[in-house]
# Entry
Amino acid sequence: MRVHTSKNFDTLNRREFARLFAWGGSAAVFARAGFAWERPALPGTPDSPDEKFWLQVRKQFVLPPELGVLNAANLCPSPAPVLEAMYDHTRDMDRDPSFQNRVKMGEGKEATRRALAEFLRVSPEEIVITRNTSESNNLVSSGVDLKPGDEVLLFSDNHPSNLAAWQEKSKRWGFTIRIVPQVNPHPGFDYYIDAFSKAMTPRTRVLGFTHLTSTVGDLFPATELCRRARERGILTLVDGAQSLGLLDVDLSEMQPDFYTGSAHKWPCGPKEVGVLYINKTAQPKIWASILSAMPGAVGISKTFEAFGQRDEPAIIGFGRALKFQNEIGRRVIEVRARQLTRMLLEGLRKIEGVKIWTSLEPSRSVAVVSFLPGNLDIGKLSAALYAKHRIGCATRIGQDRPGIRFSPHFYNATAEIERALVAIRKHVASGG
# Structure
């Protein structure tokens, strides 16, 4: 291990250094301009990425090598380049918070806006940088002008920010909510296209649905649903919390009126940074809900993004996360996530007593795998997976498809998937 020292470098006590070394699995190097982890360079993506390549990618993250976190649908780790970008810009701003020095922070925010637009294949004038998907969804439900007699058509398995939020606001403004119920297992794209089409009426003003559900990973035919709604003059809100950074999303093809997403999930970006896409054709149909200082520089952001002081270093870090994904390849990342999903589903199918809630049809689900582990106590099993097997996951309690949820991403190794399956098999067989 080689540690650089200089009177110009920050000092770090031995205990703190040891903690960071153990946490990241490599030496922490603190320099005047910021810090960086000594790590292998990100390898070029081969035509057919093998496990060796993905293990090199994993070394870009500060996750301990023995910890397998299968919870991307909730929170992803950020790779070292993103952490470095956030640290460097935060330190720079705190060393000199003058307006003159902070000009570059605004420039960095606009660079991230351009990166988001390119990532989603739209224009920067249609991008609003928010805190997360929930805020983005609520900006839509609070900003669209609705009145008594209007209808909002929703999916029952939407996230609360795209379901409960509409229901609560309907009490205030008097519009009506119509719900298309979820069916388990996923009945196929044609079923939902037909169900939503039949539920649309001349009074329907907004269609809100989830691109990929966080519950069991049901994938929706977003492009076709948006087309059908557009033909009827209905605005569409697509919740992309579980698709942004996982799927190679192309909004120029999907053509929703609104699309929302978060940095902290599949993009592996900072916390409390998100995106709201507002199609140019929909911009005259939505009101800004927050009016303050420091708006964006172009398009709808000039009137819709005046949120006051922001965490620009985090926003800049979001842009670096998008660059990291582009360096690997977005389609390559999606293929990897699908491969890990298939491993999980095939392995779980072989464990007697396990009930799988996620569709086994590859075209209907991606990277979110939910299952009931026999009669085991879900909370105790989750705790055991973490404490004994070093596998992080999520739990679902209650009557609606309860159990364990695994959501793998491109930083997970196949060995972690295998370890998770061995652990589930062991606990189900032993009854505890």
